[in-house]
Amino acid sequence: MSNKPIEERREKALAFLTAHPTLNPNEEWVFTYNNHHKLLLVIAIREYMLDVAEKLIDMGADVNKKDSELKKTVLMNSIGGSYTYTKMPDGADEDGVKLLLAHGADPNITDKYGDTMLRKLTAGHYKNIRVIEALIASGADINIKNLMGFAPIHDATAEVTKLLIAKGADVNTKSNDGRTPIHWACSNTNINLATVLLENGANIEAPFRGTTPLLMALDRYGGGYTVNIKFVRLLLKYGANINAKDSRGRGVDYYINLIERGGVPENYNGDYEINPNRKAFADQLRSLIKSAKQYPEKLGSIYAQHAFNEATNKTYGAPFGTYSIPIKNKIENYLGHNKREMPSWVPYT
Which of 13, 145, 152, 226 could form a disulfide with 52 if both were Cys (CB 3.0 to 4.6 A apart)? Predict the structure, then answer.
């Protein structure tokens, strides 16, 4: 089914280009809808006028040209929907990106912040997996970092994270300030993302700004996100240290008490009322932590055995020293804080 607004603009654009064969296709124009300076090639892609884009490229449009403001390439500017708020057909993003890649667009060029196209998409939690796949197939570097040290996997969606890991992304890569992907998952209490990361060897004890993933997750309660029992249980399953303290000496008990009081600090002297629902939730957390404290050796043995069973299945009984890094990390996570309870445990070498 044709899209009349797109067709009308497409015909006018083609007629204009035909009438002006000496036009400079690499010059920025003021786009009347928002008064921003835009390259004609970007406008053609965003308005889904792909034949117009082809003609501009034939006229010499540079598919790798950067804009003057943010130093973003045509590829980076090609996604985001119509400038004119016209409804685009399904797959418009994918079609535009593939056209540019087919004409030599480089997915590894960076903008003024050091972001590549792939990093910009994952940072925006972009969900179209086919576009991500097209970029990777065209040579996008999945581990390249921006000026702050963030890689594409740092805050990708769960589905995109699976793809990046399958292509070799480092699940424990650190930003300049020490943040790893599991910190993002825990600060947002994203259980699907955390599961993907932990299943693939994310370090459950990775330090960041004086805290741990478990304490970070508990600290998010009331901060715009809501931690839940399933999320905490997931972290404990993978060996989160229930005895860990943050840089101010605060542990799980402190944060659970804070949850119960609705964020009111312990040293607050005024009156406040404890919400029954918050208290019930805090008691659930206390019960969960108590169980983990009561049976550390048993849990450690179960998780270690599970990890080795999985590792053996994947490595056909190979010695521990030959295991891949993700599998080694997974074994470490399964043991978690229980390693201190099991000094006699030694991996087969």
Answer: 13
